[in-house]
Amino acid sequence: xxxxxxxxxxxxxxxxxxxxxxxxxxxxxxxxxxxxxxxxxxxxxxxxxxxxxxxxxxxxxxxxxxxxxxxxxxxxxxxxxxxxxxxxxxxxxxxxxxxxxxxxxxxxxxxxxxxxxxxxxxxxxxxxxxxxxxxxxxxxxxxxxxxxxxxxxxxxxxxxxxxxxxxxxxxxxxxxxxxxxxxxxxxxxxxxxxxxxxxxxxxx
Amino acid sequence: xxxxxxxxxxxxxxxxxxxxxxxxxxxxxxxxxxxxxxxxxxxxxxxxxxxxxxxxxxxxxxxxxxxxxxxxxxxxxxxxxxxxxxxxxxxxxxxxxxxxxxx
Amino acid sequence: xxxxxxxxxxxxxxxxxxxxxxxxxxxxxxxxxxxxxxxxxxxxxxxxxxxxxxxxxxxxxxxxxxxxxxxxxxxxxxxxxxxxxxxxxxxxxxxxxxxxxxxxxxxxxxxxxxxxxxxxxxxxxxxxxxxxxxxxxxxxxxxxxxxxxxxxxxxxxxxxxxxxxxxxxxxxxxxxxxxxxxxxxxxxxxxxxxxxxxxxxxxxxxxxxxxxxxxxxxxxxxxxxxxxxxxxxxxxxxxxxxxxxxxxxxxxxxxxxxxxxxxxxxxxxxxxxxxxxxxx
Lengths: 204, 103, 280
Known about the structure:
- By secondary structure, chain A is mostly helical.
- Chain A has nine helices and one strand; from the N terminus they run H-H-E-H-H-H-H-H-H-H.
- Chain A folds into two domains: 3-74, no CATH class; 94-203, Cytochrome Bc1 Complex, Chain D, domain 2 (Orthogonal Bundle), CATH 1.10.760.
- Chain A is globular and about 50 Å long.
- By secondary structure, chain B is mainly beta.
- In chain B, a hairpin with a 2-residue loop joins strand 3 and strand 4 (54-60).
- A three-stranded mixed β-sheet of chain C has the order 6-5-8. Chain C has a two-stranded antiparallel ribbon with strand order 1-2.
- Chain C has helices at 3-27, 29-50, 55-67, 109-119, 125-130, 141-151, 165-179, 189-193, 211-218, 234-244, 255-268, and strands spanning 98-100, 105-107, 198-200, 203-205, 223-225, 230-232, 249-250, 277-279.
- Chain C has two domains: 3-50; 55-279, Cytochrome Bc1 Complex, Chain D, domain 2.
- Chains in contact: A-C, B-C.
- The interface between A and C is large, with 44 and 40 residues.
- Strand 1 (39-40) of chain A pairs antiparallel with strand 7 (249-250) of chain C, so a sheet runs across the interface.
């Protein structure tokens, strides 16, 4: 979906919904301009990281509560861009998944470019019951596989969530790990296993 | 001369409670800087506490003690107005001595 | 959305959450107890830290630096106007950020100290911005100066004004930037600090749009960071947030950072300031 199409939708919705604060776009544009002027590249973090894609632009414009139709359109767009493993096998190694879930490294300006990017999972979620140091920004994933079953459908759902959480919920707080290339196919499969494999501590 | 210490010496009944905050890097010699080079060891080796000139505590400290350490002692037999002198010497030969009056 | 509706919704939510949490607690008593014990232990650790804050060492050094003739002009900072008049340090910090006519911009306390270093002492902005944050091998003078100045507002209430249009504008910009999602992970400040009672790993996240949480968080910086063995200021804290958000780096003392500090300070208005803090 190209930028012009999204801009057109944004313009149309502001005409149709004047109750959405008319002056807010100006302040938000000004803030974006201030950021662009004040920030500098460092390490692997270039200024292009401030470029707004359609999802960011829409979620920012509507304070994370976009109109239903626009949300549906963009979610479908994000879903279409998810790359599922070619061989159809979505379950990896849960032990590797646990190590990945523990790591918060990668993509900051203090991480050297070769650094393996971590899943950051425990920052926001509970997973293995043995790990007490977990965050609460996201829902607990304890017993996820046990409760929902390790079916092909559930595996696809979990894989999709990790690859691009915005496909299911456009303005979700969760990063789009696959979509931005933070995590590769093997990493996401290992995380799917951590969450769904009956042998994973998450499900014991 | 190294950074000054902050000393607090107060009477609690017949016991003197002494607390001293020392500014010192306390480098173990095992840490690396941003470029991957070992930061040389730099730590307080001996610590002496004297009251009115009489040594009451003599300690050997090592690399287990962290940066900007706080030491607390309890001393018996001192009174308000007595002078507490705390001195340290580090592995590089640097030293520092500061005084406080028991309040 | 009217606030009463939100309150009613939240009250309903709280009742449902309370009911749900009782069920969860009954189902997982071991995990809940172990969690509480961990958080209790962290609270005890914080109490132990509170005595004899190494920030006092920075305060002493900062006081010395304030009085020392330095820079190409070989002048001290004693005539610096931090907002209450030349040379008045007591109570100045809690009235910042504020609009300064001579500078033509809204400045936080660190920006203002830098301003005085440039205009009175003859330092260049480039010199000061080169290495503002200390490390194990590098002592930052600015960290000591900030610690000294803020300590002179101990016991006073945060009292930041938005009466000047530039001050109101800085607040508005700060509020916008706070909510702005960007970077590789689509994070805004609000992603972590935009909701009540959340934490990242075991670190509680203050809800920074809320006055009570904002107050507690705002007076927490500058602080002596035990894990780093360094004093850290609010400029550092915001810089490090953007690093973790996978953004590029905000320039030191830039308008964006000052706008955010303005946003936080105004939200914190009324909170009593206890002087330089200490943290893990």
